[in-house]
Each structure stands twice: as C-alpha cells, then as structure tokens.
Amino acid sequence: MLKIADLSVRYGMIEAVKDVSFEVNEGEIVSLIGANGAGKTTILRTISGLLKPFKGSISFEETDIPRLSPQKIVASGLSQVPEGRHIFAGLSVLENLEMGAYLRKSKGENKEMLQMVFERFPILEERKAQDAATLSGGEQQMLAMGRALMSKPRLLLLDEPSMGLAPIFIKEIFNIIGEINKQGTTILLIEQNAKMALSIADRGYVLETGQIVLSGSGKELLASDEVQKAYLGG
Amino acid sequence: MTGILQQLINGISLGSIYALIALGYTMVYGIIKLINFAHGDIYMIGAFLGYYFINEYQLSFLPALLLAMIISAFLGVVIEFLAYRPLRNSARITVLITAIGVSFLIENVMIKLFTANSRAFPQAIEQQKFTFGSLQVSNYQLIIIVTTLILMTLLQFIVQKTKMGKAMRAVSVDTDAAMLMGINVNLTISFTFAIGSALAAAGGVLIGLYYNSIDPMMGVVPGLKAFIAAVLGGIGLIPGAVVGGLFIGIMETVVSALGFSVFKDAFVYGILIIILLIKPSGLLGKNVKEKV
Fold first, then answer.
1. Which of A14, A116, B94, B152 is least surrounded by CB atoms within 10 angstroms?
2. Do both B131 and B211 map to the same domain?
3. A86/B182 Cβ within 8 A
4. 0.80 surpassed by pTM
5. What's the pLDDT tens digit per position in A62-80?
6. For B181-239, what is each residue's pLDDT tens digit?
7. Which residues of chain B are within 8 Å of residue A86 when distances are taken between CB atoms?
8. Do B65 and B160 fall within a single domain?
9. What is the ipTM metric for this complex?
10. Interface list for B 64-123 with A (CB within 8 A)
11. How far apart are CA A195 and CA A193, in angstroms?
12. Closest Cα to residue B184, out of B173, B196, B171?
C-alpha cells in the first residue's frame, strides 16, 4: 500500500534520513521505533508532504507522493496525527473535527463520520462545544486521532501517540489504535514506547540515526536481543 | 456631561475607522505573522476608488463603497501573491521590509498618477446635523458607526461560522497541522488579505466622506495608529482590534477636546510605549504558554 524506497531527507547539509526503505501492506499495523532524533518524525512529515525528499521514492497505491501537495496527499486517502497532537486551540472540539473533514463536500458523509468518531470517542461528543485547548492531554490525543479519522483515511499515520500521557491513557490509546485497524484502516505507527508499539504491530522497523537497522514481525523484534537491550532496558 | 458624550460620539466615529483598518493588520498578523505596513495604503486606495466611482461614474455612495471594497480586496490578494508569497519561508524581517517597500511603492505610484495634492472628496450624501439638546450628531457619523457595525457583524459571522473562517483560525493557530488536514493554506491566506483589504477600503471611503479630503499619503498616519490599536488590543485577536481602535479614537478626541490637540499623536504613541512595557500581549491578549 505504502512503499518507501531509498528515501533520504536533508535539512540543509544534515542528512536526517539515509536510504530508508520499508513498506506497509494493506490491513497491517507497522511500527517504526527508534530513539529521539532517529529521524522518525522526519519520515512521517515527508510522507505527508510537509518536507520534500532529497532522493528516493514514496508511493502510495501507485501514486507518487513527493509530487503532490499536502492537500492532494490527504485527498488520496492518507492522514496524519502529528507528534504533540497539534490540535487547534481556540477552536471548539467540533470545529477541530470539522477541519479534519475539510476536503469533503458531502455534508451527509461528514455527519456519518462525525457520528463514528463520537462513537469511538464518547468524551469528544460530551465536550464538543468546549475550546479544544481546555482538554486534558489524553483527550487532546483522542481529538487529534478523531480529527484525522474524519477524512476517512485508508492509511493512518500516528506520530508518538503515547507522548506525555499517563500510563492508563497510553493503554487506552493503543487499544483504540487496534480497534481502528480492525475496522479496516491500515496504520503506520511511530513510537519511542517500543514495547507498546511492537506488541500491537504486525511488523516493525528499528530506526537508528536515520537508518533502518532491524526489521521483522512485531513479536520477533520484541524478543530480539538488540531491541531488548536498546529500548526495553533488558 | 453632554461635553463628554459629544466627545464620545466623535471618538467612536474616528475609532470605528481605526478599528476597520486595525482588523486587517491583526488578521494578517494572526495568519502569517507579518505586520503588513502597506495596509494603510490600501485604506488610501479605497478612498481614491470611492472618489473615482462617485466623481467619474456618478455612482451613489453605497455602490461606490462596495466597488471600492471589492477592488481593494483584489489588490490585497495581488500584493500578497507578488510580494509576500515568494518570501513565505524567509526570515520575518525580510517580509517586514518588503511590506515597507510595497507601502512606498503604492504611495509614490499614486503621487505620480494623482499628484501629492489633496483633493476634495465628493459629497455623495448631503451632510445633515441632528441636535439633541446641546449634543450634535452628523449623519456622516451615523453612517460610519452603522457601516462599521454591519461590517464587523459580517466579519464575525465569516470567521466563526463559515468553513473558510474556521480554516483561517486553524491556519493561524497551527499552519502545519492545517496542511495535514488538507486545508489549502495559500487560499486561506489570500482570503485573509482580501477581507482585511476590503475592510480598510471601507474605512478609506468613510473617512473621505467624513473629512472631505483625500491624498496619496493619507494612509500613513491612520495606518500607524491602527497598527497601534491592533497592538493595544492584542495583535492577532479580532476583538482586540476593535477595542484598540475605539480606544485610540476616543483618546484622541478627548485629548484634543482638552486643548492638547497638538499632542494627540504623541499621546497615541505614548500609549503604545506604555503597553509594550506593561502588557506586550495587549489588553485582551493572554500570555500564551505552550502546552507540551
């Protein structure tokens, strides 16, 4: 579904991502793990079109992504929940969700999606008139995910959904990610929380200083010595 | 007592004009963090367009006002497209200096075309004065206040209720996240310039009617005062621009009425200095803390 080949991304002269190749197949949850600064967010921002690759290719169902504007990329069925949530402060919860459906013209379908998001995150319906900035961290994460789901993506990119959340929320968020996947949305997940990310993943990749150093099924990676040592403190 | 009330009416009329200009400053700042110093010149262009439509095409006041707003909106979009968009990723100071350059360009082109002399704005509507006891209100003042109220209500509706207005707010809070939603950021910015310019042009036509005199440099001082109004209210905040504009307008008339009219500009600039010292985020501004 998503195929990335020999991707390099630079900030000026600094190469943040070096010859990275990986793929995400339809229906999977794929986790990309790695420490802070390994280049995870850079990869995701490049997939969403906020950054342009220095070289390499990104194709999403035969569409050549780097040639498209971020807008067209969303329209092609790919949606991102950015790191740090980036909800729109000053806009109500409902308005935030409406922005997620910005590209859709059909009001009927918008209502349907809104209903679905509210079913998945009942707290958002309760707080729909509230300024999004007044939500707690966990609620903001739910809002950011709900907002991304409003465009009905076929591939959902999640950047550090567990960041800054209490353990109980982290569990809940990962449960929800699993449910979203079961309902047919393919997921590419980026995480520092390697244990959680690998335990729900079909497959995973380990990124170190801009390069993929390890790959395998979620279970294999969880069990591997390298991952145990580097990320799980074992 | 009536003296105070009289000054209040005069101040609100003048302040409404400042508020109309300040709205454009604050919206543009909100969305691209640029103090658009060419904004006062759009106000001047608006006044000239109104003059032109009334004098040359014998239009009545309202159609002249609307046409001036529409053409100025278009001009604002063109300026953003040609001068600011290519610098979207440049340092903010670069864009700021460009804005000053655009301002000089507009002023000098207008001087070249129309000379630097001031000209009388046609009296499209005959002036009438209504007296209530010792209180005097002209129909011009009423037109200014009512037009401003209508435009602000309209703006409030656009910003709060329409999809484009919500996108404007989304882009001003977080441009990257807005892009991830598929929001067309360039279109939203153009739209912001269009609205801000239309409001400034309305201010220009109204002031032409009120003061009866226009010239190519007429935008400089009101532009600067409207900028101060926007900072005073809290730059980037739409209600702040209105509060700041009215405040400056009223202060100015009060200071003049007290016999210090020579110092009225000094007074306004003094307010700016005090605000920057005491509450840089403005009267309605909050000290924003980032939530991590």
1. A14
2. yes
3. no
4. yes
5. 889 999 999 999 999 999 9
6. 999 999 999 999 999 999 999 999 999 999 999 999 999 999 999 999 999 999 888 99
7. 174, 176-177, 180
8. yes
9. 0.90
10. none
11. 6
12. B171
